[in-house]
Amino acid sequence: PVLRMCGMYSVGMAYAGTGNNKAIRRLLHVAVSDVNDDVRRAAVISIGFLLFNAPEQCPNVVSLLSESYNSHVRYGAALALGISCAGSGMKEALNILEPMINDPVNYVRQGALLASAMVLVQQNDQMCPKLKTFKDLFTKTMSDKHEDVMVKFGAILAQGMINAGGRNCTISMRTQYGHTNV
């Protein structure tokens, strides 16, 4: 399983930012057919790396995977959205991530919090009206003593990501001139 998982990440890095259809098909096939959950998760996360130059395509590709019965695939779908749509404030990505924040599995909730922070980094209230809602959610989750520790940790990291560098830092897979910088 470790070799197959590394293979999925290798495909993701080899075709990073290209949106190569053959690579996406291969990753989607593994995401729904492999017997190992870690390999499935790696395949779905790698889709985010492939589509970071075309973030508007990622919500369409992973929307069905975000409703999968397999929690590892749902976690991968959240991170794929976070990676490909980082700093965009894309409403479609946030609409997919919002229900995942209430998922019954703790690490899926953690991934949804992390991914929503990645999407909302460098956004303000005028650009993205949902920003305040998510920031309040991060604060509420951190202070809720009945919340699972893993979810609290995700909220703490999300709060740190969204306020990185005094809100002067961003997450980007390319340079300011458009070159890939993975």
Report on the structure:
There is one protein chain. This protein is mainly alpha-helical and 182 residues long. Helix content is 63%, strand content 0%. It has helices at 2-14, 21-33, 37-50, 58-62, 71-84, 91-100, 106-120, 131-143, 149-162, 164-167.
Secondary-structure map with pairings?
Layout: H1 2-14, H2 21-33, H3 37-50, H4 58-62, H5 71-84, H6 91-100, H7 106-120, H8 131-143, H9 149-162, H10 164-167
Helix pairs in contact: 1-3, 2-3, 3-5, 5-6, 5-7, 6-7, 7-9, 8-9
- Dominant shape: globular
Estimated share of beta-strand residues = under 5%
Straight-line N-to-C gap: 25 Å
Number of helices, counting only DSSP H or I runs of 4 residues or more: 10
Radius of gyration: 16 Å
What's the order of the H and E elements? HHHHHHHHHH
Helix fraction by DSSP (H/I, runs of at least 4): 55-70%
Q: Look at the helices and sheets and give the structural class.
A: mainly alpha
Which regions contain 5 or more consecutive residues with pLDDT less than 50?
none
Overall average residue pLDDT: 94
Give the beta-strand count: 0
Largest sheet: none
List keywords for this structure.
single chain, mainly alpha, 10 helices, 0% strand, globular
Describe what is shown at a glance.
With 182 residues, the chain is mainly alpha-helical.
